[in-house]
Design brief:
By secondary structure, this protein is of the alpha+beta class. Helix content is about 15%, strand content about 50%. The protein has a ten-stranded antiparallel sheet, sandwiched between helices. The longest helix has 15 residues. It starts with a helix and ends with a strand.
Length: about 170
């Protein structure tokens, strides 16, 4: 699943630059793989596929994609979704959710700490930096999770990543 990471970053960059650019085409991954992408200008949704040695990797990203997080994780209550990205390759799958809430970073971290505990995740990173907070870990069966929450002028902005079997 590591190969999809560089590819996913490239596709996300394409989706952010979608205004005035091509709405479909090919992209090259960090190891020279090529894939196809499509950007829907009316919805802002980006979809992509790439063939790798590990099989077909897919990615779907946008603000209006239904959020389906693995491992029993749920969206933060009352938060506004900025972007949701889902990806899969073989048996592995995951999601990255960007959201905003009027709650504090500590409240966001507490909410996801409980979900991580419920999912059997061992916390490996627990840090507070400049008023923000980060929490990350992994379960024995390979479910990985990280949350980064930071205060801002319009409330707390957060990025949640959850995935399973992401070798």
């Amino acid at each position: 699943m590591r190969k999809i990471h560089g590819f996913a970053v490239g596709v996300l960059a394409l989706s952010l630059a979608a205004c005035g650019s091509e709405t479909s085409g090919t992209i090259e991954g960090e190891d020279g793989e090529t894939g196809e992408y499509t950007i829907n200008r009316s919805t802002g949704e980006t979809t992509a596929t790439i063939e790798t040695d590990e099989g077909t990797a897919t990615l779907r990203s946008g603000a209006n994609i239904d959020v389906d997080l693995p491992g029993g994780f749920t969206p933060y209550p009352g938060a506004s979704v900025i972007s949701n990205t889902e990806f899969s390759q073989g048996d592995g799958a995951g999601a990255m959710l960007l959201f905003q809430t009027s709650d504090s970073p500590d409240a966001v971290i507490a909410f996801y700490r409980q979900q991580a505990d419920d999912a059997g995740i061992t916390i490996e990173l627990d840090a507070k930096i400049n008023g923000g907070a980060m929490l990350a870990g992994e379960s024995e069966d390979g479910l990985t999770f990280s949350i980064n929450a930071n205060p801002g002028a319009e409330g707390t902005s957060a990025q949640l990543a959850v995935g399973n079997k992401l070798d």
